[in-house]
Amino acid sequence: MTDNNLTKEQAQHKKMGIEYFNYTWGLLDKEERTQEEIDDMIHA
User: What is each CA distance from 22 to 1, 5, 27, 33, in whole angstroms?
Assistant: First the structure.
């Protein structure tokens, strides 16, 4: 399915998935993380 064929809900899920993926990788790159950041990675 191309992006043009996505429903609004599917497009939003895709966007959120990309954002959470990038956020989690940003946290993985950190040498030290807070417990809150660790929890964020688990629940992202």
Answer: 22, 24, 9, 16
